[in-house]
Amino acid sequence: MKTVLITGASGNLGKACVEKFLSQGYKVLATVSPGQTLGNDFTGIETFEADLTNEASVENVINNITKAYKIDATLLLVGGFAMGNITDTNGPALQKMFSLNFDTAYFVARPIFNHMMNQSTGRIVFVGARPALNAADGKSTLAYSLSKSLIFKLAELLNAEGASNNVVSHVIVPSIIDTPVNRTAMPTANFSDWVKPEEIAGTIYYLCSNQGNAVRDMVVKMYGRS
Fold first, then answer.
1. Residue whose C-alpha is closest to residue 222's, from 177, 178, 174, 190
2. In the chain, what are the helix, strand and coil shares in percent, each to the nearest 5?
3. Gyration radius of the chain over CA positions
4. Cβ burial, residue 6 (10 Å; 0-12/13-18/19+)
5. What are phi and psi of 54, to 5 degrees?
6. Per-residue pLDDT tens for 191-220?
7. CA-based angle 9:10:12, to the nearest 5?
């Protein structure tokens, strides 16, 4: 049985990923914020409390996890979003987005990457963002776009180091994900144009599976028709 660690498992994409990996026989581990649970949505999942914006908290939890499990794949799905152009974006706004989108990924990726290097295999999947790749889209979400842009560079650097040990990082780049929150926020949109959480989860699973072993350094743009 392979083991996957998922952050952000309580979100729409996280739940879709949990369902996909469980259906494929994986042992699923998930981090949750202190005092929170995944509720009754899933059974057979082991959860670990961690404040992912706090490096010491993350290191403690990941150390406990890697003592008990060989982690084959890690999905870093936690993040946040904010509007705002250069005029609107002050230091605190910038730091908030960096904390939610980069720090949470880096603090988990660092010990997990070292664990995978020691075992000479592993897959890490990050979530990027289209505004980080397209300035025309990113100018109105400056802090969000800047924080997500570092995800691409981090994956690139990890791949440069991990290549000799079969440790591979990929970045999934969704556009608008078809979620209840997004439908409420944009009720007149054509929902069929949006990418489904289940479609993203299927792609992530492929990249982590034996069938995806030959794939390297992928930036997967999942834009649907939007």
1. 174
2. 50, 20, 35
3. 17
4. buried
5. -115, 115
6. 999 999 999 999 999 999 999 999 999 999
7. 95
186 pLDDT higher than 80: yes
pTM of the model: 0.95
Q: Which tokens hold the place of 74? A: 């890690």
Q: How far is CA 89 from CA 4, 11, 101, 147, in A?
A: 36, 26, 16, 13
Distance CA 132, CA 141 (A): 9
Q: Check pLDDT > 90 for residue 69.
A: yes
Contact 5, 30 (CB under 8 A): yes
Rounded to the nearest 10 degrees, the angle between the axes of helix 55-68 and helix 104-119 is: 30
Side by side, the strands of the sheet bearing 219-222 are: 46-49, 27-32, 3-7, 73-76, 122-127, 167-174, 219-222
Sign of the C-alpha dihedral, residues 96, 99, 104, 109?
A: positive
For residue 127, give the 3-state DSSP assignment: strand
Q: What's the Cα-to-Cα distance from 94 to each of 39, 86, 133, 149, 226, rounded to whole Å?
A: 32, 10, 18, 13, 27
